[in-house]
Amino acid sequence: RCVQETGYGLDSFIKELHNKHKHFVPIIDPGIAVDPNFRIYTEGLNNGVFLKGPDGKIPIEGVTWPGYSVWVDFLNPNGDEYWEDCLVQLYTTISFDGLWLDMNQPSNFCDGECSDELHYNYYYFPLDFYNNLYYNPTHRPLEDSTISMQAVHYGGNANNNEFNYHNLFSLYQTNSTAKFFNQKLNKRPLIVSSATFPGVGRYASHWLGENYASWRYLEYSIPGIFNFGMFGIPFVGADICGTRGNATIALCSRWMQLGAFYPFMRNHNGAGNTPQEPYIDPKLKSVSDKAIRLRYSLARYIYTQYMQTSLKGGMIFKPVLFDYPDDPLLYSNLDTTFMFGNAIKVTPVLEDHTSTLISYFPNSDWYEFPSLKKVMSYNPNSKEGKNLTLVCGLENENINVHLKGGVILPYQSAPLADTSITAITKLKSLPISLIVIPDHDEKANGKVFL
Fold first, then answer.
1. Which whole-number Å values give the CA distances from 129 to 108, 113, 140, 336, in the listed order?
2. Where are the alpha helices (DSSP H) in 232-298?
3. 8 A C-beta contact, residue 292 and residue 258
4. Is the preceding omega at residue 189 within 30 degrees of 0, hence cis?
5. What's the whole-number average pLDDT of the chain?
6. Residue 220 phi, psi dihedral angles, 5° rounding
7. Apex CA 23: angle with CA 19 and CA 25, to 5°?
8. Per residue, what are the HEC states of 161-221?
9. Longest dimension (CA), the chain
10. What span, in angstroms and rounded, lies between the C-alpha atoms of 150 and 113?
11. Average pLDDT value for residue range 143-159
């Protein structure tokens, strides 16, 4: 239903990816083209599963990439079945491994309903209404770049309008998409959702949206991921190197180093910008190789953190303060360093032309990684930690990663010389080592999910 035809050798391209143990995740927008010759549109129209206009009868229209568009009403009991069947038909055409759900705020290229030019800037309420809302930080109309607040959902209730249900669209859509993976394909969902709502983390991951190729946005990504972890959406990342603007080699190199510890790691560029693939520059390639292979080496540890978070809640990428809540000095070092799981502290470079930096370490035993050199010892007579000076010149291509005492973590060496390690699945053939870091009481513990 969703794809009328494939072309450009897409099938053979996907088969080649799968043969190399790689995965294919297409992007899907929720806007469905208004076209009487498009079967997905006519079937949805006949089944009455689209959001309706104010009269509750005619589907409300907006504009997205295919032109005039309509949207599935997931409150409709038939909406889930329609969407899942759509995905089944897509899967029979292209064997995807996950789905990227974009523009599911849902986004609209006009404000409100725009079925003709007279309604291009349609607003449900008078403009002064938006200034009086309890929480509207932008003071912009609620229909700004989205569908009309007057759209009617299934149910026949006067309160079943878009004004009351707008924020739930992504929750319903990700839930329905997860059902497709679980029930139709019998596999664990891999869903990346542009929009979120409390509960989306049960079904999907998220990225922080289009950002800028700047050092400021590199730094912003850390508290951004903190926030979504606290919202119950732990599998999150920022667009590495920035989506808008041109990234320098230094910025992109540092972002690849930080991004290696994002729960969701993705380099994403905007059309017309300077290329930022790792292979475009020898320095960027070398830095990226080391960062990605370090992440691969820790894949078992990372997977274990995912499983722990999935089963028991919590955060993977979190402020150091969360593991040391009794240390008040960590409040002033909140978003320049972080814990990655329960064992690893990462101190990224967030400014250009940085050869050394000072990072605060709470009172514990700390070991440099991967050398395992002890850099700080627990002091039983103090509650405070210490500031340590860390070497971080870009010429060294190192990432300041430290392990705290008292942990055991799995490790698989993925050296640069081993060019066969080009996918996570290749790690299955590598032996697993256990790194044991005793604390000041000579104790250590850890878990591994295989």
1. 21, 18, 10, 40
2. 249-259, 282-297
3. no
4. no
5. 91
6. -60, -30
7. 145
8. EHHHHHHHHHHHHHHHHHHHHHHHCCCCCCEEECCCCCCHHHCCEEECCCCECCHHHHHHH
9. 77
10. 9
11. 88
Beta bridge partners of 402: 345, 368
pTM above 0.85, yes or no: yes
Predicted local distance difference test score (pLDDT) of residue 122: 44
Indicate whether 139 pLDDT > 80: no
pLDDT reported for residue 9: 82
SS3 annotation, 61-82: CEEECCEEEECECCCCCCHHHH
Query: Under DSSP, is residue 385 helix (H, G, I), strand (E, B) or coil?
Result: coil
Distances (CA, A) of 433 to 373, 374, 407: 18, 20, 14
Tokens 């190399």 sit at which residue? 20
Q: What does the angle CA 251 – CA 257 – CA 259 come to, to the nearest 5 degrees?
A: 95
Q: Where are the alpha helices (DSSP H) in 332-371?
A: none
What is the C-alpha separation between 429 and 189, in angstroms, rounded? 25
> What's the token pair of residue 169?
């669209």
The pLDDT value given to residue 129: 60
> What are the tokens at 84?
């899942």
CB 69 within 8 A of CB 33: yes
Q: What are phi and psi of 133, to 5 degrees?
A: -65, 150
Q: Which residues pair with 33 in a beta bridge?
A: 69
| Residue 62 bridge partners (DSSP) | 69
Q: What angle in degrees, to the nearest 10, is found between the helix axes of 282-297 and 249-259? A: 0
Report d(CA 107, CA 63) in Å as an integer: 9
Instruction: Supply the DSSP string of 93-104, one letter for each residue.
Output: HS--S-EEE-ST
> What is the DSSP-derived secondary structure letter of residue 50?
B
Is the confidence at residue 289, as pLDDT, over 60?
Answer: yes
* The one-letter amino acid at 213: A
Give the count of beta carbons closer than 10 Å to the beta carbon of residue 25. Answer: 14
